[in-house]
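USER: For my understanding, would you kindly supply a protein sequence with its structure tokens?

ASSISTANT:
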Amino acid sequence: MKKLLSAAAIVAISSTTAFAADLPVRTKAPAYLPPVPVYSWTGFYLGGHLGAGWSRNEFSEPQTNGILAPGTDLGSHNGLGPLGGFQVGYNWQLPNGPVVIGVEGDFSFADLKGDHQNSASAAFADNFLCGRENQHVCSIFALLNGQERFSSKVKDTATITGRIGVTSGPEDRTLWYVKGGAAWAKTDFADSATVSALLCINVPLDSACFAANADAFASGNRSRWGWTVGTGVEWALWQNWSTKIEYDFLDFGSHDVALNGRFANSDTFNRTVHVDQQIHQIKVGLNYRFNWGKAPVAASY
């Protein structure tokens, strides 16, 4: 009987051990890791920029009140120089996506200066009968030399644009964007001219030459609206700060510019020229974004 009870006890203990081996082992739950926050570009921002620009200015004779034939090419030049200013705007990042849309206005103080010179010469000679009853032959000779220098200085530029971009990189902290809209620029123009003339007259038993010089200067300015397109990339530095690099093209089409001035002898010198103008800009900027009433956004896409 004792042997029978011992055998039953061994069987029961073996069964219990085998059943326990089949049960899952309890382990400690891993620590909770919250999702990595995604940088949000939504909000109003204010910033400043520095950069450089170059303007392309093509001059021609206007269709009306021109000195030469309408459309005559008067030359062209590029204006180069620094610029700097500020920008303000608003971005809205679409929910659960990488697309950012917004609006921006910027203003730049500029110093884009350039000039070019035109030179021209003309000669005239003729013989004609002169004296009593046209018994003698007289001659006349004239030589004209002229130089004209056109200059320009872009002083201020501004744009009002819409922007659309796509985020990328770790935590979506890189924003690639394109922009387009209206552009404005204020430009000073000037025209300085120098004309020299030599006139010689030959008559029987006598001849005489006369020389004359004339200097003139005229200037004017023009504010002009046009259009702009551009592209850039912006990087988030800290929660509210970002930096960007951007290229913009501004086109102001063709327009007439009235130049008013005087000759050296105080006579009035007025000139109208036709100008076709474009401006290129490269800007590096720094923005501060305001989180007015906006909570942090967690990763969800």
